[in-house]
Amino acid sequence: MGNKLQNAISDADQSRSDQVIIDLNRAQKTPIVSTDVNILLEERRLVFVSVIGLYNSWKQCATHLLFPAIVLLPMKRCWIYKPKKYTEEIVSTIGARGNCILNNEIKDFVAFLKWKDTQKLAFFMLDDYPAYDEIKGNSLIHPFWSHLSRVLQTLHDPVQNTLYRGLQLDDVFWTTRYGQNTSTRSRYGVTPATVLSEVYCLSMRFKPMKEILRQSNPESLLPIETLSELERACAAKSTNTGSVEYRGVAGSADAYGFTAMTLGDSQSLSSEWVVAADYDD
User: Fold this and answer.
1) Which of 214, 247, 215 is nearest to 229 (CA)?
2) Left, alpha or beta for 210 (phi > 0: left; psi -120 to 50: alpha)?
3) Are 122 and 48 within 8 A, CB to CB?
4) Cα–Cα dist 192/196, whole Å
5) What is the per-residue pLDDT for 264?
6) Are 166 and 150 in contact (CB under 8 A)?
7) What are phi and psi of 163, to 5 degrees?
8) What pLDDT, on the 0 to 100 scale, is given for residue 238?
9) 35, 60 Cβ separation under 8 angstroms
10) Stretches in the chain below the pLDDT threshold 50
11) CA gap 20, 15 in Å, rounded
12) How far apart are CA 67 and CA 89, in angstroms?
């Protein structure tokens, strides 16, 4: 199925994807004096967990961070290769309110997602994945997380100059070690039960998704929903701002002590196509 989709990319589609990336790179060739120096020096790989946040900010994201970024998408891969057929699904999922057609802005975004897919850095959460025995003896782990974990271990980690570690999906870690010391302290104020619900059910809630990613590779991955979260993360890194523990905060603050600005909360969608709880009303 994957090969058929790849082969279905027309020359026109490929040309548009190439042009979108070329234009984006050219637009950022001129110095951006307003860009925070901490962002320019950021080395961690971004992981976008919100497609709405990605859609609203991808053209403003510095290319040295956007191009190697991983994107987690509450979509099926076939949607971006047959956008005319799946227009309704695409438009509702990315939160393009007021649009019922594939305008140029949405077409550019779809072209960008195709390019991300060719990089093997786009992960489609609604696709079917084979079941892996990622954690021996635990068959409850959702196949998507096992798939992402395996692919992650094939990607180069420039911060550590090695390959990324697999995702932290072991229930023993989350029930006995999580939050017990500085290195395992919660970054996003979520409980072990909330994280394990994400691991087993793929509920697609942003904070537990980010917690799984950060606990797995805390020095090297930076999961975000919006660019403003990136700016806060970079500022906090430069001042060594501490994390917040999950006890008592119930997810009210993010890793850096700020109230989380979550597009999924303020711009919730009611589409039947969006199954993620953080995308629903």
Assistant:
1) 214
2) alpha
3) no
4) 6
5) 33
6) yes
7) -90, 155
8) 60
9) no
10) 2, 6-7, 30-34, 241-275, 281
11) 9
12) 25
> Rounded to 5 degrees, what angle do the CA atoms 115, 120, 123 make?
95
Token code pair at residue 187 = 């970054």
Q: Which two tokens stand for residue 113?
A: 């997602």
Q: What's the one-letter identity of residue 92? A: S
Whether the Cβ atoms of residue 67 and residue 118 lie closer than 8 Å to each other: no
Per-residue pLDDT at 256: 24
* Residue 94: half-sphere exposure toward Cβ, Cα within 13 Å: 28
Mean confidence (pLDDT) of the chain: 79
Token pair of 143 as six digits:
């196949």
Residues 6+ apart with CB under 8 A from 230: 39, 42, 46, 61, 65, 222, 224
- Distance from C-alpha of 118 to C-alpha of 112, rounded to nearest angstrom: 10
CA distances (Å), origin 211, targets 34, 208, 256, 266: 30, 5, 13, 21
Report the C-alpha gap between 183 and 6 in whole angstroms. Answer: 41
- CA nearest neighbour of 45 among 165, 150, 139: 165
Residue type, 217: N
Tell me, what's the pLDDT at 25?
64
Amino acid residing at 45: R
Total-model pTM: 0.77
- Token pair recorded at residue 237: 């890194």
Q: How far apart are CA 157 and CA 227, in angstroms?
A: 22
